[in-house]
Structure formats: C-alpha cells, structure tokens
C-alpha cells in the first residue's frame, strides 16, 4: 500500500529498500521504536509462557534436591559427632577437649557448595512458581493470553543459529579458522537481513578483524591438521597454521 510521502504518520524504510515509485512512501505496519530508559532494563514483568517456564524451573530444582544425597558425597560426609557443641565452639561459646576438626576441612567437602545452592534455589523456584500461578490466574480472569506457543517458537527459531555454530565448528578442521570465520560472519550478516553491499563488506571486514585478534595475536588453539592447509606448500602451510 502506498501513500503520499508527506504524510507524517507513515513510517518509511531506507531509500534503497522502498518498494514504491518515486514520490511515494511505503507505509509500514511496524510500530515505531519506543524510547528505552536505563531503569526500564531492570524492570521484571511476567509475560506469556511464564507459568510453564516456572514449572520447568521448579522441577529442575526438585530434581537436584532429590539426587543431592547420592550425587554430592553427602552420604560420606565427615562432621563432628556433637555438631551443636562444635558450632558453639566456633563462636567462642564452648570449649572442646582434644583435637578439633578445622572448619575449613568441613567447608571443603564436595557436598557443601551444592547444599548452599539448593538452600537458595529450591525456595526461590517454589516461590516463583507460586507468584507465576497467581499471575496466570489473574490473566485468565481477564481473558489475557497465557499460551507459551509464541515463546516456544522463538526458542525453536534460535536453534537455527545453533546449527550454524555447529556447522562452523565442523568446517574449521576442513577449511581452517580464517576461511570458516569469513564464511560464517558474512553469511550471518546476510541472514540477519543486512544484504546491501555495504553491510556485506562490513560483515566480511569484521570477520577478518576477529581472525586477526583471536588467532593472529592471541594465538587461540585450532586443529593441527586442516585439510585446506595440507594442500599448500610446506612453508605456506606452516605460516597459515601459525597465524590463521
């Protein structure tokens, strides 16, 4: 749909992307971006799918709690026989005759850190589930959407980029870090919708900068046997393996 270019209510795309004749503008259905305030970045609000996510979080917390005893070394814990007297001794309220187990030995046991995490995680997950249930019932009362379908589709869509990264790790031993990074960086620029020559070149040069920073200067480890580099003369192969 086209409209007069002078209409202030219209939202126009970039000039090179406007699918309209000269003298006309393209009316977008996308709402204008809202001004973002710093304090709004830390505001917490419950949206659709929050209750389902809270159920998953609570189940995970309970799962960790159930297997705490058998997986963290709790069954083989080493504690003083009279724990009450030992705690009083640590605060200077009692004396213990003989050798006293140092507190550091107890704290270093493998079950201590998981126990501290569960003390916070389990109540927090259950409290969050309770609050999420109250929010869900309120939304249902006013016929507001509560389905998690929209959120699930976004998570599934993100798997596409996971596949890109997995493919990237698979082609590095074949094409090398340099070529693989250039392919990934340039393609992702195109895939995200930045398809003009200017943006494609920006993605390409950014990929070159990544290679120079992480491989040439920081010397991150890459596979020693790279098929593409093995096809090069020995001197060139050694140079590429060292810097690219």
Shape: flat
Query: Got a strand count?
Result: 2
Considering DSSP H and I runs of 4 or more, what fraction of the residues is helical? 55-70%
The rounded distance between the terminal residues' Cα atoms is 50 Å
Radius of gyration: 30 Å
Helix and strand string, N-terminal first? EEHHHHHHHHH
Content of β-strand: under 5%
Q: How many structural domains in the coordinates? A: 3
Number of H- or I-type helical stretches: 9
Task: Give the overall average pLDDT.
Answer: 82
Q: Tell me about the biggest sheet?
A: 2 strands, antiparallel
Descriptive report:
The structure is a single chain. This protein is mostly helical. It folds into three domains: 32 residues, no CATH class; 92 residues; 91 residues, no CATH class. Helices cover 58% and strands 2% of the residues. It contains nine helices and two strands; from the N terminus they run E-E-H-H-H-H-H-H-H-H-H. It has a two-stranded antiparallel ribbon. Helix 1 runs antiparallel to helix 5. The longest helix has 43 residues. The radius of gyration is 30 Å and the shape is flat. 7% of the residues are buried. The N terminus is likely disordered.
């Amino acid at each position: 749909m086209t409209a007069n270019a002078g209409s202030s209510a219209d939202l126009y795309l970039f000039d090179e992307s406007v699918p309209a004749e000269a003298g006309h503008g393209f009316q977008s259905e996308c709402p204008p971006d809202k001004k973002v305030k710093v304090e709004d970045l830390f505001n917490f609000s419950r949206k659709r799918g929050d209750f389902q996510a809270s159920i998953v979080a609570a189940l995970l917390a309970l799962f960790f709690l159930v297997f705490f005893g058998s997986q963290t070394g709790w069954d083989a814990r080493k504690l003083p026989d009279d724990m009450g007297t030992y705690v009083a001794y640590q605060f200077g309220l009692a004396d213990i005759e003989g050798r006293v187990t140092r507190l550091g030995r107890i704290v270093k046991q493998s079950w201590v850190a998981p126990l501290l995490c569960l003390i916070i995680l389990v109540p927090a997950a259950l409290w969050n589930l309770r609050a999420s249930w109250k929010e869900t019932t309120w939304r249902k009362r006013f016929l507001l959407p509560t389905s998690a379908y929209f959120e699930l589709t976004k998570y599934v869509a993100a798997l596409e980029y996971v596949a890109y990264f997995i493919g990237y790790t698979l082609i590095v031993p074949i094409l090398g870090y340099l070529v693989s990074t250039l392919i990934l960086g340039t393609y992702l620029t195109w895939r995200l919708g930045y398809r003009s020559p200017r943006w494609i070149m920006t993605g390409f040069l950014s990929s070159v900068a990544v290679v120079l920073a992480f491989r040439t200067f920081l010397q991150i480890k890459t596979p020693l046997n790279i098929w593409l580099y093995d096809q090069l003369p020995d001197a060139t192969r050694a140079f590429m393996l060292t810097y690219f």
